[in-house]
Design brief:
CATH superfamily of the largest domain: RNA polymerase Rpb2, domain 2
Number of strands: 11
Distance between the termini: 59 Å
CATH topology of the largest domain: Dna-directed Rna Polymerase Ii 140kd Polypeptide, Chain: B, domain 3
CATH class of the largest domain: Alpha Beta
Order of helices and strands: HEEHEEEEEEEEEHHHHH
Largest sheet: 5 strands, antiparallel
Length: 256
């Protein structure tokens, strides 16, 4: 097979370059190398050890390493495969009651490798990761005027560093609602009942010092206790799935 010709770059500019062109791929390479050398271990340290509810059994990862790639870049392209390296870890299982410790080498999966061009080979196709601007965690408030009723409507978005997004809003009927992870709108009183932040109407109303908008929301709220609120919230978050109080409670505990 003939070797590929290397293109030679010619400049016809009359004005010489004042500043040499920087390495435009340096940011991608530095970020990826940091993840390999530091970030991946920090991620493992954040998740592990995993313990059972009694704290007597624990699973930990002591170290990790990569084997050499099974395919070259050209082979990955020809075979419509991925350019990656096998990732292995040493898993340590501990029984704290008996003091027994077992260690085993575990294959976690194939880890993508960045090429010299700052790209990844996925299913034989060269792809690049595009940076995206993400709104910083925090609470954002907004106010708009409803076109039909000419009333002031308010929204509050709670964006956490990790976990479910919460979007509170008021409508033209002066009720307060909430959306969890941008799903269907839920009455905020139902949401509070599900979180056990006040269960009776009187307790919820007292939390807001008898606000008129909360009174209007309670009038539309058909739930009477936490179990009913959990089921109602679960149906909106997981439509079409079998609804039980246990599954709803598990979902809420996971999200919050």
């Amino acid at each position: 097979m003939a070797s590929a010709r290397v293109a030679q770059r010619l400049s016809f500019a009359k004005i010489p370059e004042v500043q040499p062109l920087p390495d435009l791929l340096a940011t991608q390479h530095e970020s990826f190398n940091w993840f390999l050398e530091t970030g991946l271990q920090e991620l493992f340290d954040e998740v592990f050890p995993i313990e059972d509810f009694t704290g007597s059994l624990a699973l930990d990862l002591t170290d990790h390493w990569f084997d050499e790639p099974t395919l070259t870049i050209d082979e990955a392209k020809e075979r419509d495969s991925n350019y990656s390296r096998p990732l292995f870890v040493t898993a340590r299982f501990m029984n704290r009651q008996t003091g027994e410790i077992k260690e085993q080498k575990v294959f976690l999966g194939d880890f993508p490798i960045m090429t010299a061009n700052g790209t990844f080979i996925v299913n034989g196709t060269e792809r690049v990761v595009v940076s995206q601007l993400v709104r910083s965690p925090g609470v954002y408030f907004d106010q708009v005027i409803d076109k039909t009723s000419d009333k002031d409507l308010y929204t509050a978005k709670m964006i956490p560093g990790r976990g479910a997004w919460l979007e509170f809003d008021t409508d033209k009927k002066d009720t307060v609602g909430v959306r969890v992870d941008r799903k269907r709108r839920q009455l905020v009183t139902t949401f509070l009942r599900a979180l056990e932040i006040g269960e009776s109407d009187e307790e919820i109303l007292e939390l807001f010092d008898g606000a008129e908008s909360i009174k209007n929301t309670l009038e539309k709220d058909t739930t009477e206790d936490r179990d009913e609120a959990l089921l109602d919230l679960y149906r909106k978050l997981r439509p079409g799935e079998l609804t039980t109080v246990e599954s709803a409670r598990g979902l809420i505990n996971t999200l919050f």
